[in-house]
Write a structure and sequence with these properties.
Blueprint: H1 8-20, H2 26-44, H3 48-51, E1 53-57, H4 61-75, E2 80-84, H5 90-102, E3 105-107, E4 118-122, H6 134-144, E5 150-153, E6 174-178, H7 183-187, H8 189-192, E7 194-198, E8 211-212, H9 215-221, E9 236-241, H10 247-259, E10 264-269, H11 271-280, E11 285-288, H12 297-305, E12 308-311, H13 319-329, E13 336-338, H14 341-344, E14 358-360, H15 364-371, H16 373-379, H17 383-394, E15 397-400, E16 405-408, E17 415-417, H18 429-442, H19 447-469, H20 476-491, E18 500-504
Parallel strand pairs: 1-2, 1-4, 2-3, 4-5, 5-6, 6-7, 8-17, 9-10, 9-12, 10-11, 12-13, 13-14, 14-15
Antiparallel strand pairs: 7-18, 15-16, 16-17
Helix pairs in contact: 2-4, 4-5, 9-20, 10-11, 10-18, 10-20, 15-16, 16-17, 18-19, 19-20
Length: about 500
């Protein structure tokens, strides 16, 4: 199932589509949402069965969800108390009335709160924006200071779920949202904690909306190995880079391509890097090159041999490099990852559709050099739109690294990768990503899917590595060491149990 990543406007459109086009009553959506949250709450916080739950319910439909949660927990025998603002929507008014009839305990405005095992923030929904005020702020501050773990419904109060701007005061340990994560969940993970996406009966999402890359998505697309394969069947990757003083970048990319399943990897690099490769990486074929201005015959043969090229790790930006890059891109038009230094010197005349599939992998600084200040400034507020415009401008697939990583191409939809942690904010991580993507391109994957799969593999390996070695100590070698566990996990991936669609664990920051 496709899980969309939504802005507030898209979430509202989806809700409206369910009610008007598909005639799902709003009360049914609210009932399903509240009961799904209650189920997640008891799964994640079993102490609530005895210790009870305190629910802060707002005046709108998010508060209506809170009243449904209260009624569902009360029916299950869980102690529950509700501190609420006066409801203002019909569905919330009706659900408060039902909860009162059922005997749910409602706390008066100034009444002391009993100590419960869990607090539920059901004050504001996806559409809320800007700093909160008045009674909502007062109740939110009381929830934040309450001292129990907090589960947020849709999002923690004070977080703009489109922009990711956090005004406070609530910081949740778990956030439960409906149908798909909101952009703000992915931009402000530290405020949301673990994000659980549940199904409440929405119709199929708009295929133009961004898609969340999950383990289930990746497991279906990971290129399979067959018993009769030989090394040529697994793809040939040519890594071009590794100028003097930048040996590590090219070696990281070559190791990563092998670890992602490439059958053969050939390294075209400077003398120093070739010596290091021959000493430490005997799996890799080598071709020594001056890396410009001209392309040596052996380097040209390596490019003709390859099923995919990774161009840029440790390449350098000397004057001769731009001419060298032009020569590389004039050879047989196999899919090519443009990374690192190559992003700064990519000849614009190569950007013509239909000749060579390019996957550009910039971080935000390289994105500015690649596409200019206007799109880079846009990326600060809308990574999704900026990446899509860059893909159109470059006639290429663009993987914009960051939190989250966004992949856009000319065909759509945008893919969103939310895995990973600050352990990847270190030298060499981007080189691993380039090698992963190159290996998947060499197996014939579509560029956008190869990029998304590579980014998610990097993120998931980093998450596993951080749990063992901590994010602070994580190095590229640790990420590669964790990679086999990612492949095993994707081989054995199982769908989540209803109503859960996806789970984004809290980010490792130790």
């Amino acid at each position: 199932m496709t899980i969309p990543v939504l802005s507030a406007a898209e979430a509202a459109a989806w809700d409206s589509m369910a009610r008007t086009q598909y005639r799902v009553p709003s009360r049914v959506l609210m009932e399903t949402a509240g009961r799904a949250v209650a189920q997640v709450l008891l799964t994640e916080f079993p102490a609530a069965l005895q210790g009870g739950v305190l629910i802060a319910a707002g005046a709108g439909n998010n508060g209506g969800d809170g009243w449904v949660i209260a009624r569902a927990l009360h029916a299950a025998g869980v102690p529950v108390w509700v501190a609420a603002l006066d409801p203002k929507t019909d569905d919330t008014i009706d659900n408060r009335a039902l909860a009162r009839v059922d005997g749910v305990r409602e706390l008066a405005r100034e009444e002391a709160w009993p100590q419960a095992a869990v607090a539920v923030d059901a004050l504001l929904g996806t559409g809320a924006a800007g700093p909160i005020k008045g009674d909502v702020l007062a109740l939110g501050e009381r929830v934040a200071a309450y001292g129990a773990p907090i589960l947020a419904v849709d999002g923690p109060t004070g977080l703009d779920l489109t922009s990711g701007e956090a005004h406070g005061p609530v910081r949740a340990q778990i956030t439960v949202t409906f149908g798909g994560p909101r952009r703000g969940h992915l931009l402000a993970r530290e405020w949301c904690g673990k994000v659980v996406v549940v199904d409440i009966g929405f119709p199929p999402s708009d295929p133009a909306w961004p898609v969340l890359v999950t383990d289930a998505w990746a497991a279906v697309r990971l290129p399979r190995l067959q018993p009769t394969m030989h090394k040529g069947d697994r793809g040939r990757v040519c890594v071009v880079g590794g100028a003097e003083g930048m040996t590590g970048a090219a070696l990281h990319a070559a190791r990563a391509a092998l670890a992602a399943g490439a059958g053969l990897v050939k390294l075209v690099a400077g003398k120093e890097t070739i010596a290091a490769a021959r000493a430490s990486l005997p799996d890799v074929l080598t071709v020594e090159s001056a890396l410009g201005p001209d392309l040596e015959p052996a380097a040209g043969e390596a490019l003709e041999w390859a099923d995919a090229v990774v161009l840029g790790p440790g390449l350098g930006r000397d004057d001769v490099r731009a001419q060298f890059v032009s020569h590389v891109l004039s050879r047989r038009p196999v899919p090519t990852v443009i990374d690192a230094d190559a992003l700064h010197i990519l000849p614009r005349e190569t950007l013509t559709p239909g000749t060579r599939h390019l996957v550009c992998t910039p971080h935000v600084g390289e994105f500015r050099a690649l596409v200019g200040d206007a799109l880079a400034d846009q990326a600060a507020n809308d990574r999704w739109g900026a990446a899509a415009k860059a893909a159109s401008k470059l006639k290429a697939t663009v993987l914009l690294k960051g939190v989250p990583t966004v992949i856009a191409d000319l065909r759509g939809p945008v893919h969103v990768v939310a895995s990973g942690n600050p352990g990847l904010a270190t030298g060499g991580s981007g080189d691993l990503l380039a090698g992963f993507v190159g290996a998947f391109l060499a197996r014939g994957m579509a560029p956008a899917e190869a990029a998304a799969l590579g980014a998610h593999a990097l993120g998931r390996a980093a998450d596993l590595g951080a749990r063992q070695w901590t994010a602070r100590s994580l190095r590229p070698a640790d990420v590669l060491a964790a990679l086999p566990d990612v492949w095993r996990a994707w081989r054995d991936v199982r769908p989540a149990l209803p109503p859960v669609l996806a789970v984004l664990d809290g980010v490792e920051v130790a």
